[in-house]
Amino acid sequence: MQFTVQQIAEALGAECQGDTGLTIIRAAEPGDAGPTDLAMAMAPKYAEALSNGDARAAVLWEGADWQALGLSAAVFVPRPRMAMAGITAMLDRGQGIEPGIHPSAVVDPTAQIAANVSIGPLTVVGARAQIGAGAVIGAHCVVGLDVILGESAVLREMVSIGARARIGDRFIAQPGARIGGDGFSFVTPEVSGVENVRKTMGDQGDAKAQTWLRIHSLGAVEIGDDVEVGANCTIDNGTIRNTCIGNGTKLDNLVHVGHNTRVGQDCLLCGQTGVSGSVEIGNNVVLGGQTGVVDNIFIGNGVISGGGTKILSNVPAGRVIMGYPGIKMESHTDIYKAQRRLPRMARDVEALKKAVFKQPPSD
Predict the structure, then answer these.
(1) How much is the pTM?
(2) What is the dihedral of CA 40, 45, 47, 50, to 10 degrees?
(3) Which residues are catalytically annotated?
(4) 141-169, pLDDT tens digit by residue?
């Protein structure tokens, strides 16, 4: 894939100057860029590396003197990360999956495969599955019974989608994502120690050891449009109702979404976040890396949790939280500051005790 500087600027809606007919093949770091590369130098701190490299064209910050930097052409962008989104989309060479259905793929004769679908080696497509137009399915994937996969979906290698999942358009699943595993639901014949602890916050009572009995998952998974799921993510089927992921939501690598949970639109769930079952998450929620969420609570629209937060109770809309348990970030910061002062306070108290106890007897 190659583009001219002019074509890239037009796609970004950005200004360009110089020899805008130069051909660009790939994007590169400023110091590593060659004559056919587009150097990504979108801040003044990259100027020195750019001058020492062999780039002829670069993406620069607004107002940069591209000629003084030894360039033949430049594209000027006001928002670097937005520019990165556009440029990387244009120059993405994909994974090399050939058009059509690979001879080693196993596609059930009742499956409905739309136009321009690519299915890689050793992939299995189950009975009555529906694959939307332009979908690309990598090697060793499994698309289960009665699955609906929308248009222009991309499944990287070794993605599995369980039976009856319904997935919207432009879905992206990174390697090893698992969608539609059974929920982690078990029960004991009699009241267990865990149930007593949840009620008493500490006392197991007289519960005895018992065998765990499996609660089957009769629900499936529903995923909206423009959703991305990271590598080795797991999204569990619902027990009775479906587990749902809203339009535009993005899950980072190693994120787990438990059974019956509903995630709203345009949310970000960052790496290693774990969401228990039957959680209601609103729209535009951001859960920082390693956030943990207890079951059967709600998290309101626009909530942001800092990395490592453990959410143990309902969170109202718009709140920014942090800590274990998760509380308002400003309160957590005050507590942390106070903790850091504790050693000094202990020394002061010890000094005061010594001073008091060494006082001579009063008359």
Answers:
(1) 0.88
(2) -40
(3) 259
(4) 999 999 999 999 999 999 999 999 999 99
